[in-house]
């Protein structure tokens, strides 16, 4: 099942659930309070309350949506930056030369393969970073620390590689924080309750075909917004899964050629 189809199904479910909540709240309120009478001020009061609830509810959705989208973009940029840092270590080690070239490059290649093949799926499940990938990163780091440069060229490259591999660790921790630090009831509770409370004052309108269609349209749009917030919440899982494209590009190039051929 493709990621697009999975995302489409989840999005439709969000829209349907939101429509059910809106119409359910509307009919429940109408059953409790009954139809309003012309001449009283119930209609004005209900619409005034609905307007205020809508303002607060829209503000909550907008703030959370903006935050999740910003985090998503940060992760995407961080993955690219991490891949660049890994590529720098791989290529600078070749420029450095010496007996450690093969060991460092193989360690880097194995690390990238582990991130793509194992760690990405673990992050999608909210399990955090791979211990195996950490060990592979640490092995490369230890080898870089043990380098004994003898020329200005080697000293520059050694310092640069140590700085780049340290940056990889920081970017890894950022990825983990995004995958495991998701919100739960702190957002979904107010979002769902706000949607229900926003729909209840609409009971002052007759359940005509036009009114019900407009209420359903409002519920569907609210569901779409909630779907995108949900999708951006974890960039490593559907429906908003971010593919490890920068790492895959490394494996398609010289980094992947270092790996042993599969049996």
TrEMBL record:
Keywords for this protein: Membrane, Transmembrane, Transmembrane helix
Highest taxon above the source species: Bacteria
Keyword Membrane: yes
Presence of keyword Membrane: yes
InterPro entries: DUF4239
Transmembrane annotation, as ranges: 6-33, 45-66, 185-205, 212-233
Protein name per the record: DUF4239 domain-containing protein
Lineage: Bacteria, Pseudomonadati, Pseudomonadota, Alphaproteobacteria, Hyphomicrobiales
């Amino acid at each position: 099942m493709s990621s697009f189809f999975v995302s489409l199904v989840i999005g439709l479910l969000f829209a349907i659930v939101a429509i059910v909540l809106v119409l359910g709240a509307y009919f429940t309120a109408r059953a409790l309070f009954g139809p309003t009478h012309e001449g009283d001020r119930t209609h004005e009061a209900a619409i005034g309350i609905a307007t205020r609830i809508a303002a607060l509810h829209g503000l909550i959705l907008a703030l959370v949506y903006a935050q999740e989208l910003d985090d998503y973009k940060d992760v995407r940029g961080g993955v690219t930056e991490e891949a660049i840092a890994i590529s720098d270590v791989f290529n600078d080690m070749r420029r450095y030369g010496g007996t450690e070239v093969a060991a460092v490059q193989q360690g880097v290649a194995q690390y990238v393969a582990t991130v793509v093949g194992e760690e990405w799926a673990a992050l999608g499940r909210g399990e955090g970073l791979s211990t195996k990938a950490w060990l592979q990163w640490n092995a490369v780091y230890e080898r870089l620390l043990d380098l004994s440069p003898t020329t200005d060229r080697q000293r520059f490259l050694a310092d640069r590689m140590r700085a780049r591999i340290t940056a990889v660790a920081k970017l890894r921790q950022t990825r983990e924080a995004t995958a495991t630090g998701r919100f739960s009831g702190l957002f979904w509770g107010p979002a769902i309750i706000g949607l229900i409370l926003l729909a209840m004052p609409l009971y002052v309108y007759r359940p005509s075909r036009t009114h019900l269609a407009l209420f359903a349209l409002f519920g569907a749009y609210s569901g779409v917004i909630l779907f995108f917030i949900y999708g951006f919440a974890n960039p490593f899982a559907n429906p908003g899964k971010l593919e490890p494209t920068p790492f895959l590009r490394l494996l398609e190039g010289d980094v992947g050629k270092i790996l042993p051929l599969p049996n």
